[in-house]
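A reminder from the course coordinator: this example appears on the midterm review sheet, so study it carefully.

Given structure:
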């Protein structure tokens, strides 16, 4: 029996990798809920921060860019850096890409992956449909799933875990922000997700305060027409560093470990999109603090204790706190990786260490997207990272397991 390659994940990275593997003639089974992170774990009405040029899933065949989708769906073409992409359009694009290139996608969850017991290597997968199957190689493209990060100081008010109905939740738990109409909301964080969540909640009728750590942390990028002309263009703006991260991620994994992790956090880090400033300023109150010391639930509502820049301790109350505190890659949180695999995986601060072609220390086990960022750089956190990742991953896998 020919054992397929299993791709776990049907977001931008999984779909793009699957299209490349198929184009190389490999049998592939793809598991996951298509575009679910965008459909269920980002706010309705959100606009993409990435530009149209940086928002296509890389495909081995022409005719599958975001612009191609817009043309076919009769949507206004999104091409220039000033065109802003509604999340609903991007979800439609991802689902269209899936129907055309991965039509036999299996909407099931992979419950566990373990090394195969039989001779010849490979992997054994258990699916939540009750089926077990084997694969010659596995591509993990599970993106943001299960990696939401809640800082310990906020965790105390969220006994039993963050929840939209409790005092503290994580931004990934919200799709419909109209539930906060008429309520007082604190959003902790200063990245695009925090600032856009705050603006959308304010537009829905909430009284919103953003609590950000550090001075001057709430900031917005320059519009395309104010970007410096003498620097090279990249999908993220004009800068030499951004150009290098976007087009040459290959040497990234040879940088010192501390530098790699620092850059993943900082490059393209907390900064609101240029087009958000007008909607945000005046609608959302900003409180910049030295530190958030803790959060407690009192009478069902959260109380946030902060240290101000003047050194005072203050208590901030609200009906609810949303922690827009991002994601952290940790293979220990990828519960579908069985103990037989996790113990063999070389990791660096929780993230898998990847070699050429996105292969981990376990032959046949590949990672792409966010879990690959500490090896291939910050571009792996974004859709345009598929340009570099998918052809290389598919090329390596086909050579080693084709
Ligand atoms: C608020 C917000 C805004 C963003 N805006 C942008 C933007 O404008 N531009 C941009 O480029 N990036 C943006 N990003 C980053 C974006 O999320 C990633 O670039 C992209 O989603 C990563 O795609 P992915 O395929 O790796 O993972 P995801 O899109 O997270 O997809 C994960 C897939 O894995 C599947 N899965 C998980 N576990 C299992 C399992 N055990 N079994 C089977 N399937 C499983 C899920 O069903 C899903 O199909 C944003 C992120 C956030 C949080």
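Designed residues:
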């Amino acid at each position: 029996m020919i054992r397929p390659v299993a791709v776990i994940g049907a977001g931008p990275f999984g779909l793009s990798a699957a299209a490349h593997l198929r184009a190389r003639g490999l049998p592939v089974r793809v598991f996951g809920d298509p575009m679910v992170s965008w459909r269920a774990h980002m706010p309705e009405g959100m606009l993409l921060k990435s530009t149209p040029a940086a928002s296509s899933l890389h495909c081995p065949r022409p005719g599958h860019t975001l612009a191609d989708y817009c043309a076919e769906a009769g949507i206004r073409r999104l091409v220039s850096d000033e065109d802003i992409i509604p999340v609903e359009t991007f979800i439609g694009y991802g689902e269209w890409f899936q129907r055309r290139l991965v039509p036999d996608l299996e909407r099931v969850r992979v419950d566990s992956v373990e090394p195969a017991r039989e001779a010849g290597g490979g992997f054994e997968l258990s699916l939540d449909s009750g089926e077990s199957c084997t694969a010659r190689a596995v591509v993990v493209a599970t993106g943001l799933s299960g990696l939401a990060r809640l800082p310990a100081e906020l965790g105390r008010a969220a006994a039993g875990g963050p929840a939209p109905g409790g005092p503290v939740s994580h931004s990934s738990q919200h799709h419909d922000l109209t539930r906060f109409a008429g309520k007082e909301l604190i959003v902790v964080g200063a990245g695009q997700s925090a600032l856009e969540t705050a603006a959308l909640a304010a537009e829905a009728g909430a009284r919103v305060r953003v609590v950000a750590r550090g001075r001057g942390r709430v900031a917005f990028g320059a519009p395309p027409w104010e970007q410096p002309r003498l620097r090279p263009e990249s999908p993220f703006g004009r800068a030499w560093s951004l150009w290098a991260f976007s087009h040459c991620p290959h040497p990234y994994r040879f940088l010192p470990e501390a530098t790699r992790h620092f850059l993943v956090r900082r490059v393209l880090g907390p900064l609101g999109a240029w087009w958000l400033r007008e909607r945000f300023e005046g609608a959302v109150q900003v409180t910049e603090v030295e530190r958030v010391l803790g959060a407690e639930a009192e009478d069902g509502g959260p109380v946030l204790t902060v240290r101000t820049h003047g050194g005072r301790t203050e208590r901030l109350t609200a009906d609810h706190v949303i922690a827009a505190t991002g994601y952290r890659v940790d293979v220990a949180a990828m519960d579908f990786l069985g103990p037989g695999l996790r113990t063999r995986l070389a990791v660096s601060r929780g993230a898998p260490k990847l070699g050429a072609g996105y292969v981990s220390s376990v032959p046949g086990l590949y990672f792409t997207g966010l879990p690959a960022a500490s090896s291939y750089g910050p571009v792996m956190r974004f859709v345009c990272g598929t340009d570099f990742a998918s052809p290389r991953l598919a090329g390596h896998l086909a050579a080693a397991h084709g």
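The first strand starts at residue 5 and ends at 8. The chain has two domains: 5-146+327-401, 152-221+271-323.
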